[in-house]
Structure formats: structure tokens, C-alpha cells
Specification:
The complex is a heterodimer of chains A (616) and B (338). With 616 residues, chain A is an alpha/beta fold. Chain A contains 20 helices and 24 strands. Chain B is α/β, with parallel strands linked by helices. An eight-stranded mixed β-sheet of chain B has the order 2-1-3-4-8-7-13-9, sandwiched between helices. Chain B has a three-stranded antiparallel β-sheet with strand order 10-11-12. Chain B has a two-stranded antiparallel ribbon with strand order 5-6. The chains are: A alpha/beta (616), B alpha/beta (338).
């Protein structure tokens, strides 16, 4: 297609990565481009990556922040493997990301940042633009800083503020190149800088300047577009995992007819859940920013005792600190949802990178015999349902439940087809206001089906009782050191959790059911695994996959499924934790594909490795 | 807090559990004082919650016929925060010890007081670890010989009143286990206080640290060393009021009454916003040795955490209306695929 001064080439999908200094506003550019594409109707998936430091030294590799988005005209599951387009705002961004760029990929450089100082800071001996290492890519040099300064000369802004708008020049140019309208971003800028119209106008001018640079520069006259995706009909929103999870908790509280209490201590990458929930006080949500991780969990236990849907959220190191308090909830048999947005560990580890290395800790990281249910979110849009499911189990079975999310699910985004809320099951609970025996109230007399104890909350006349962390006598709940009782209570707590296997969705097979090989996954690897299996099936390789949402207990058809296949392959972003569980629980000689590199699997990486294992 | 006219007897607050402290423990007297006081609190017992951590004192909730939660070591103020803010209609009490509140749980105590959470914290201070059989605690005196300090503790003890005042506590008081009238009067002041209250109760551990408070509890010591802080009254003490407290250059000092002009003697004011005088009173003794103030040090009004949290919720509902999940999931913008 040709219009006055451009040709438009339609592509089924394109992956763009924006990279720059952490102060360059790359996350903003990426999310604006994403939202515009979402409104346009593309399917998409995003992968933000940023350093743990807020402002690492300018111009260095350590300070590079990036945002990758794949947009497509079909249903996609991952943010793309290798980018087709790389926007590099400085030499460090180029150095950090060039090796990922697809052959013949489009490389847009902010040429003003390529001075001697920055080139040296990035660790280059020679200017990479002249050293030959960009051969094989389509290089476009754009004087982004000069364009910004010229465009914003008419505004009365200090120099630093002017240069801050260069990301808008980049966004404008990319919007031209990929035929995205500017209106949505203009509206967004106007809303964001409502109180400072001068800054709003300057940013819009910068945005248009980038766009107009495309119009007037012949090199950019070959443009691209990605048509609307044919997604299942419905109403969609673009959502990341932290927001999805927060909304899932609010929805669960609403459907349970309870108020939500969220106790948390700020920690990356879970803090956005605290931020999101603290906005929604009109849902009767109480957010409590505690003095530490332990207090956050402890206050949540108190809130649960007082009758709230109580949730405490954190990330790896915080889960370790909460361990003893979770055991209290487990022993007192109080409902509690514990959110763990996993990141690279151990210790402070990689605070802003995804990893699935807390699975065994979630299952076993408590003193004593202390089993509890564990569920995992498999994608940003699934986080809503994972939160809902965790709340359902906690309330129905009077137990703490751990939700495992990770940095990839939490910060990545994708379109979510909104559910009909009326179709989502209402949540029951064990609240009571009456005696459960003729003699009076027995706080540890269990329901004969769920083994859950009744939940009598302060304020309920006649049901005054005491619970705590000391072993309780079955029925009365009185402190008991009796040996037979401790054996019985330990068994009951284990039974209660094991019994949940009958009350959760069964595993479903995806791909070629007649295959000999099953790829087994859990959590955030869902997109990459499913896409890899689709690609393998498309080229005739017989392979199927299935994905765990429930990690404890496993669905009751797990044995049947894992035994059906000759070969079971388990890709995980850890050194083999689900692998260990599957081998020990089901005596299957499963094989792992394991990585702890601070980045998710790409679909192609899994295609290659799965094929390798099949052909072994 | 809604008050319901209920007539209770002390036995209404006794649970059916056998009390298992050592015979002669000061905890028995405090339990009796608290159970007695509950009858005059004017709150129906289903709205009363006792929360504790770990230690001898922490068994307290099991003996109260109210709602109770025996939690984990040091965390009671945080657990109680969750209970209290979840239901502002409840009367929430924390029972703790010197190890529980000032050592493993020091952080939580400081922040519960700072935030002015509506919980009343009773810290039984026996200056020893009892349940673990006799190690020195953060309030044990320097040189204290215990199982874990056979050559004497080399640690400077904490001053609980100073810690509480330094934590912006709005209510700070001290009592003594055997003085049931004093305990009752302090509890009465605390119960009517809006926000957090911190009450240190000197409690004799007759097994591991007997007579630690003798200078304040013996016949002579009681008269010679107790400085009774009473709002609006001159701080004089001794058999014939021969000693007095004066504030000079911001510092509380003890003088002979006859040596000073009567107008210079400090008249106790629990409502003073500035905590400096209360703090200087807390420094008159560092532990129960020599002249030591007891009673209410400070009782000042400021908004409680609970009130502010629920006011924000009410304001949000007034501004935005009750939350709708249907609207929430559409709040970031949506598009339709047909």
C-alpha cells in the first residue's frame, strides 16, 4: 500500500524493544506504545526490564532500562523472542541489547548520545557505528536530542527538562513507523500534566516532532503496520499481573461479602499491589504498610481473626521473614492469603528479574509439619483468577494459601478478556454465630467434608474463645500437650490440605494428545511453553503440554497424566524444583530444562531444547 | 466505642482453664486486677480481645473469658493492630513481657505506639526471662548474674518509660503487681484513652528474679522510694513528704522539700503536649532502684490510627461511591472485539 509519502507493509507480528538510561523514560514509551496498540486491537505481550537501582550511573550498562513489546494480528502468548526493532537511546543501551536483535533487524539510534564519553562508558573501544559491528542490521540514526531542543526552544523550560522529552520524540517516530495514531498518547499527556499545561504542551510538541521527522525523512518512508488481532469476541483491557492480582483480591472479597485487609512492607516487585489496593478504599479495603515483613503478616493474621479476607504480600526475602507467622495462621487455622511475587534469589539476589526459585520454599519453608495450599499465576491476565482461587481455598478450608507470581507475570502485560462477573462463583466461608454443640461453642470442631473449623470472630456474643500457636485439643481448642492429640491434629491439618485435590480444576492436555512427550510447566512459563509446543506441532513434532496452577495439592488426575507419557520434560526458571516434586511424588523419570539467568524462556529456546530432548 | 450497660462479676471473665503460673508469681495478682477491672469497663465481653506473644505473661489470654489470640514471640502489637483496625468497635489489649516487648518485639512496640493504634499494651516487667528459665533480659541490671551471664551482664538495660515516650506514645504509665489500686487506676485512665496506651507493670518473678522490686515494694521502700505521679498534684514523696521533684533546666531532679520554694515543686500534668518533662521524669531512675515514679506519666490526645484509616475509607466512599468491581476492571480503558 502506498500513500502520499509512504508505503505500508503489513506484518503479522512485530517485536519492538526500547532501551535507554533508566532516567530516559523507556518504560513510559513502551507502555504508551502498548496501550495505543491495545486500543487499536492488536494482541500483545510485554516484558519490562529495569535495573534494581533507581538511577544507576548515567550512560553505563548497569543503568540500562528496557521495555519489549510484541504486537500481533493473532493470539500470542509471549512478548516475543528476539526483537525485530531496537531503539537504543545511548551506546550502553546498544551494547546491552544488540546481541538480541534479529538479523537484518531495524536499529534506531539516538545519534546525539554517541559521543566519545558515552561510547567509552559503554565499554566500547571504537565507535560501534564505524567498527562494522552493526553490519547486517538496518541502522537509522536520528538526532533525537537536537530535534528535542529545537522543537522545545519556544517553551520556557530549563535545559534538563527539555531533554527529558526526547523519549517522546522516539515515541513519535516509532508511532509514525508503525502507523499508530498519536491521539491516545496526547490525551494521556494532557491528563497527566493537567496542572502544568506548559509541560503537557512541550511533550506533545516533542511527540509530534518525532512523528514529523518520519514524514519528512525519506529513510522512514517504508512503514509497517500490524492489523487487528482476531481475538475471541468480548470486552478487553490491557493488564499487568500485579494489577490483575489486586483486582482478583478485591473481587474475591466482594464475592465473599467480606472486607479486604492487605498488610505489606514495600518490596520489589510486589509493591505495586500495595499501591493499587491503597487506591481502592471505597471498596472498604484496608491497606496497612507495616514496619516490617513480619508485622505485615502478623497484622494480617490479626485481621483474619477479626473476620477480614486477610492478605499479606511480599517477594522472596519477605516470604522468609513471614515464615513463622504463616505457621501461626496454619496452626490457628485462620484464612490467610500470602502473595509472593518471586524474583531472583537467594538473599537480595536479582530484585527486578524473574525467577521461579521459591516453589520449594512455598511448599516446605516452615518449621514443623506445616503443609499449605500453593497456587501459581501463569500469565498477567491469569493473576486475577489465581488470586481469586487462593482466596476461595483460604476461606473454604480455613488455611493460609500462598500465591506464587513472579516479576515476569507481575510487570508484564497482555490483553485480558473481561469475565462476566455474574458467572464467577460466589465465595463461601466458615463464619458462624451459633453454638455447634449442645454444650456450647467448640472452635476446633471440624466440618465433616472440608475438615475446616468454624470461624467465630470477636463481636459475636457467646462464642468467646482463645486460639494460638500452642497445639490445640481437637474440638475444644484448649491447649493440649497430649501425644495422641498432636498426632491426630498433625494428620488432620495434612488431610485437610490433601483433600483439596478433589476441589480444584483437573490438568488439561494442550497440543498433540497422542504424543509420547509431555511438557509440564507451572507459573509464568505458560506462554513460552504453549507457544513452543504450538510451533513444534506445526512442524510435525508430536508433543503435548500441561500446566499446573495448583502446586499443592496437585490436581487429582496428575498421576494419570504424567504416567501416560513416555517422556516428561519440565522447563523451569530454577534448577529443578517442580522436577524434584514430580519425580518424588509420581516416580517419573522426568527431565528438566532449567535456567536462572534473570530472563524468561523464549519460545524458540524451548523449541530447540524440547526437540533436543525428544531426539536424545 | 459503643458502651453497653452490662453488669459483670469478676468470675465472668475467668475462663475454664487452670492457671499455670508458678505459685507466688506476680502474674496472678495482675490477672485478678485486670479481671476485676473488666467488670467496670462497661464493654460487653464479646467485644474484648486479649492478644499476646510468647513468654509467661503471654499465657494471659487463655485465662480471660473473652476473645483471645496467643500469637508468636514479639509480634503481639502487630497482630493486635490487625484486630483493632479491622473492627474499631473492639477493645483490644496486648499482654507482653520485657523480653517479648522490648527485645524480640521492640520494633513492633515502637511502631504501634508511634501510629497510635487503638490497643492497650500491658508489659509485665520482671527483668528476667522466665519461661526459658532465667536468662538476663533487656531490662536486667548491669552486672546481673544469670545462666547466660555467669560473670554478670555487660549490657546497659533499657528504660521502658523512656522508650515509650521516645516512640511518641500518647499514653504512658507504670504500675506494680502488688498494688492493685494503682493498677486499677492506671487501667481506668488507659481504657478511656483514645489510641495506644503503654503500661509497664513491675512484676515479681519469685523463681528466677525474686525481690527485684523490693526497693519499691518493701514496707520501708514503698514509702521512701515511690514517687506517685498524680495529675494536678505536687510531686512530693517520703514518709513526711520530705522529698520533692523539681524541674531545672529541663531536667527532673530530686531535692529536699525544705530546701526549695513550694512553688518550684513540679505539679504533675499528664496532658502536657511536649513530652520533655515526662521523659525527664522517666530518667529519675533507671530500673526500680531508689526513688522511682509510678502512675500515669503522659496522656495526650491525638487522632488514633484506627480513626484516621476509617475516615479515609468513609471519605473515599463519599467521593466515589461504594466500589463496583464491574467498574474497577474497566478502569484502565477497554476495547471491544466483535
Amino acid at each position: 500500500m502506498t500513500t502520499e509519502n509512504k508505503t505500508i507493509e503489513a506484518l503479522p507480528a512485530i517485536t519492538i524493544r526500547f532501551a535507554g538510561d533508566s532516567g530516559d523514560g523507556m518504560q513510559l514509551v513502551g507502555s504508551r506504545f502498548t496501550d495505543t496498540s491495545a486500543l487499536f486491537g492488536n494482541d500483545l505481550a510485554t516484558l519490562p526490564a529495569f535495573p534494581a537501582e533507581i538511577r544507576a550511573p548515567q550512560g553505563t550498562i548497569a543503568g540500562v532500562s528496557s521495555f519489549q513489546v510484541q504486537i500481533a494480528d493473532f493470539d500470542i502468548l509471549t512478548p516475543g523472542d528476539n526483537p525485530d526493532v531496537l531503539v537504543a537511546m545511548n551506546p550502553a543501551a546498544l551494547k546491552a541489547h544488540l546481541s538480541d536483535l534479529s538479523p537484518n533487524g531495524m536499529l534506531i539510534l539516538n545519534e546525539d548520545a554517541f559521543d566519545e564519553k558515552n561510547i567509552e562508558k559503554a565499554g566500547y573501544k571504537l565507535d560501534p557505528r564505524n567498527s562494522g559491528e552493526l553490519d547486517g542490521y538496518r541502522v537509522f540514526q536520528v538526532p533525537m536530542e537536537k530535534l528535542t531542543k529545537e522543537a522545545l526552544a519556544e517553551f520556557d523550560l530549563p535545559g534538563r527538562a527539555v531533554l527529558r522529552s526526547k523519549n517522546m520524540v522516539a515515541l513519535g517516530l516509532i508511532s509514525w513507523t508503525f502507523n499508530r495514531p498519536l491521539e491516545d498518547t496526547e490525551n494521556w499527556i494532557n491528563a497527566k500534566f493537567k496542572k502544568t499545561p506548559e509541560i503537557a504542551n512541550a511533550n506533545i510538541k516533542a511527540l509530534k516532532t518525532g512523528y514529523n521527522f518520519g514524514i519528512t525523512t525519506e529513510a522512514f518512508h517504508h512503514t509497517y503496520t500490524v492489523e487487528k488481532a482476531t481475538l475471541p469476541p468480548g470486552e478487553y483491557t490491557n493488564i499487568n499481573g500485579n494489577i490483575g492480582l489486586s483486582w482478583g483480591l478485591i473481587a474475591a472479597a466482594s464475592k465473599a461479602n467480606l472486607d479486604l485487609f492487605y498488610g505489606s512492607y514495600p518490596i520489589t516487585p510486589a509493591s505495586d499491589i500495595l499501591h493499587e489496593l491503597s487506591k481502592h478504599k471505597n471498596f472498604n479495603v484496608i491497606t496497612f504498610q507495616a514496619e516490617d515483613e513480619i508485622a505485615a503478616a502478623a497484622a494480617s493474621v490479626g485481621a483474619s481473626f477479626a473476620g477480614k479476607l486477610a492478605v499479606t504480600g511480599t517477594s522472596g526475602p519477605g516470604l522468609a521473614l513471614k515464615s513463622e507467622t504463616i505457621s501461626l495462621a496454619l496452626s490457628a487455622e485462620l484464612p490467610l492469603v500470602v502473595v509472593n511475587v518471586q524474583r531472583g534469589g537467594p538473599s537480595t539476589g536479582l530484585p527486578t528479574k524473574p525467577e521461579q526459585s521459591d516453589l520449594l520454599f512455598a511448599l516446605y519453608g516452615r518449621h514443623g509439619e506445616s503443609p499449605l495450599p500453593v497456587v501459581a499465576a501463569k500469565s498477567p491476565s491469569h493473576a486475577f483468577y489465581a488470586a481469586y482461587e487462593a482466596a476461595r481455598i483460604a476461606l473454604k478450608y480455613m488455611t493460609p494459601v500462598i500465591i506464587l507470581s513472579d516479576n515476569y507475570v507481575a510487570t508484564g502485560s497482555e490483553p485480558w478478556k473481561l469475565p462476566n462477573l455474574d458467572d464467577i462463583e460466589k465465595l463461601g466461608n466458615n463464619l458462624t454465630t451459633t453454638f455447634n454443640t449442645e454444650e456450647g461453642f467448640m472452635p476446633f470442631l471440624r466440618d465433616i467434608q472440608t475438615f475446616a473449623r468454624p470461624w467465630a470472630i470477636p463481636g459475636t456474643p457467646g462464642l468467646e474463645h482463645r486460639v494460638g500457636g500452642l497445639e490445640k485439643e481437637e474440638g475444644t481448642g484448649n491447649v493440649s500437650y497430649d501425644s495422641a492429640n498432636h498426632q491426630y491434629m498433625t494428620d488432620m491439618r495434612a488431610w485437610k490440605v490433601a483433600n483439596i485435590a478433589n476441589d480444584i480444576d483437573k490438568l488439561e492436555i494442550h497440543g498433540d494428545e497422542s504424543a509420547d512427550t509431555l511438557v509440564l510447566g507451572w507459573g509464568s512459563t505458560y506462554g513460552a511453553i504453549t507457544q513452543a509446543v504450538n510451533r513444534l506441532n506445526a512442524k510435525g513434532v508430536k508433543v503435548a503440554s500441561t500446566h499446573f496452577v495448583h502446586l499443592n495439592p496437585f490436581p487429582d488426575n496428575t498421576q494419570q497424566i504424567v504416567s501416560k507419557f513416555k517422556k516428561v520434560i519440565i522447563p523451569e526458571l530454577n534448577t529443578g524444583q517442580l522436577l524434584k516434586l514430580i519425580r518424588e511424588n509420581f516416580l517419573v523419570d522426568a527431565r528438566g530444562i532449567n535456567k536462572v539467568a534473570g530472563v524468561p524462556f523464549t519460545a524458540q529456546e524451548l523449541v530447540d531444547k524440547i526437540e533436543g530432548l525428544i531426539n536424545e | 466505642m459503643s458502651k453497653i450497660p452490662v453488669t459483670y462479676k469478676r468470675t465472668d471473665f475467668q475462663s475454664d482453664q487452670e492457671v499455670k503460673w508458678c505459685p507466688g508469681c506476680g502474674d496472678y495478682t495482675i490477672l485478678a486486677s485486670v479481671q476485676n477491672f473488666m467488670t467496670e469497663l462497661g464493654i460487653s465481653k464479646e467485644k474484648i480481645v486479649f492478644v499476646s506473644g510468647i513468654g509467661c505473661a503471654a499465657r494471659f489470654p487463655y485465662y480471660m473469658n473473652t476473645y483471645g489470640l496467643h500469637s508468636i514471640h514479639g509480634r503481639a502489637p502487630a497482630v493486635a493492630t490487625g484486630v483493632s483496625v479491622s473492627n474499631p468497635d473492639l477493645s483490644v489489649w496486648v499482654v507482653s513481657g520485657d523480653g517479648d516487648a522490648l527485645s524480640i518485639g521492640g520494633n513492633h512496640l515502637v511502631h504501634a505506639l508511634r501510629k497510635n493504634i487503638n490497643v492497650k499494651i500491658l508489659m509485665f516487667n520482671n527483668q528476667i526471662y522466665g519461661l526459658t528459665k532465667g536468662q538476663y533480659s533487656p531490662t536486667s541490671e548491669e552486672g546481673k548474674k544469670t545462666k547466660s551471664s555467669p560473670f554478670g551482664s555487660v549490657e546497659m538495660p533499657l528504660n521502658p518509660m523512656s522508650i515509650a515516650l521516645g516512640s511518641e506514645a500518647s499514653f504512658v504509665a507504670r504500675s506494680i503487681d502488688m498494688d492493685r489500686d494503682l493498677t486499677a487506676s492506671v487501667l481506668r485512665e488507659a481504657a478511656t484513652h483514645k489510641g495506644s496506651a503503654f503500661i509497664e507493670i513491675y512484676q515479681n518473678c519469685n523463681v528466677f528474679n525474686d525481690k527485684a522490686f523490693e526497693q519499691l515494694t518493701s514496707k520501708e521502700g514503698k514509702i521512701a522510694n515511690r514517687i506517685n505521679l498524680v495529675h494536678g498534684q505536687k510531686t512530693v514523696f517520703g514518709a513526711n513528704d520530705e522529698k520533692a521533684v523539681v524541674i531545672r533546666n529541663g531536667e527532673a531532679i530530686i531535692v529536699d522539700t525544705k530546701d526549695v520554694d513550694a512553688s518550684e515543686i513540679y505539679v504533675h500534668d499528664i496532658y502536657k503536649q511536649n513530652p520533655s518533662v515526662a521523659f525527664s521524669l522517666s530518667r529519675l531512675s533507671h530500673g526500680p532502684y531508689g526513688p522511682t515514679p509510678v502512675g500515669v506519666f503522659r496522656k495526650v490526645q491525638r487522632d488514633s490510627f484506627n480513626e484516621d484509616v476509617h475516615q479515609q475509607i468513609a471519605a473515599a466512599k463519599e467521593q466515589k461511591g461504594n466500589g463496583s468491581v464491574e467498574q474497577l476492571i474497566r478502569s484502565l480503558g477497554t476495547w471491544n472485539v466483535s
